[in-house]
Amino acid sequence: MKFHVKVQKNTIFPFLLLLLCANLFPMDKVDIIKQPVKHELEAFRELFVTSLKSENPLLDNILAYIKNRSGKMMRPILVMLIAKAYGVIDDSVRHVALSLELLHTASLVHDDVVDESDERRGQQSVNAVYNNKLSVLVGDYILATCLKHAAITGNVRLVELVSKLGQELALGEVIQLSNLSNKDFSEEDYFNVIRRKTAALFAAAAESGAVAVGAKDDDVKNAALFGEMLGIAFQIKDDIFDYYDNNDIGKPTGNDMMEGKLTLPAIYVLNKLNDESLNEVALRIRSMEATKDEILSFVKRVKDEGGIEYADRVMHEYRDKALGVLPEYIRQDIRDALTAYIDYVIDRKK
Question: What is the pLDDT of residue 129?
Fold first, then answer.
């Protein structure tokens, strides 16, 4: 006896195909992060591109170079995710997200001049392609454009938030430069710098998203806290990169130390050992008098003494703190996206 099974078209086979594709090509963290705001992100990218244009050929050429180097737009995505967690994304959200991204972009252009850096994330910096004078002027132009878009929101609170962030970023650089003459190896000083240099930007992104949609004061406060913890984890990860030689990262081993910067892995080991000879090398690094061989030897010692493991542990502690301030009532897809966001930050390879 023969049995004939009739399979209706457009039922089981498409389902099996979908299931197979889901297993073969699972969504990566970036896809999960973008999913709740993918349509809004497309509109934002268009706004970003149109904001950086000029009738002056030279300026427009430099702005085009900067646009081509733009990354995954992680900070604007954070603005929009938080905004969508508490309300509806509108023009105010888009323009404050753009304002923060432009401020970040301007600060990077200026930082590369200050640090005399030739590369940024594996690509030539603006000052390396053009020159320091043009880089400073273009950074100023982008900064003015940033303030213009903050004003377009019509929300004084958002304008104040962007302005305060600009002050914090500059202050962080000043404090870091003043620390070059500091003979103490203090974690408190380290966190004081990165809260202003890096975490402040993430905190402002999350806070502005909540403010733009009129979230409650407690939610605004928690959003800012989430952003701050996320930003600290981001910077610790960046500092860990300095201990490994990888062209994809965009900087050689010990690059931060060549600029006189001692970060968390080194500070931990210096305080743990309190070794006079190692301390002397650290002070030579801070004064930018250490040789390349001294820096490489110092890097090896820090790695051998558990500096990387300690920094990684602290980074994961901030990851858990960040997720702990998210309210239980936000949408699951937003929670999944924010969890994927911070996991992406600590798992990234560059």
Answer: 85
Say what the pTM is. 0.87
What CA–CA distance (Å, rounded) separates 305 from 281? Answer: 16
Exposure b/e, 278-316, CB count within 10 A at least 16 = b:
beebbbbbbeeebeeebbeebbebbeebebbebbbebbe
Residue 124 has φ and ψ, to the nearest 5°, of -65, 135
pLDDT at residue 251 in the model? 53
Regions of the chain with pLDDT less than 70: 1-27, 120-122, 246-253
Nearest alpha carbon to residue 158 among 207, 102, 108, 221: 207
Six-digit token string for 209: 């998203």
The percentage of the chain sitting over the pLDDT mark of 90, rounded to a whole number, equals: 72
- Report how far residue 184's alpha carbon sits from residue 173's, in angstroms, rounded to the nearest whole number: 18
Do residues 30 and 344 lie in contact, with contact meaning Cβ atoms separated by under 8 Å? Answer: yes
Beta bridge partners of 246: 251
> CA of 96: how far to CAs of 36, 64, 171, 206, in Å?
19, 21, 22, 11
User: What was the pLDDT predicted at 1?
Assistant: 46
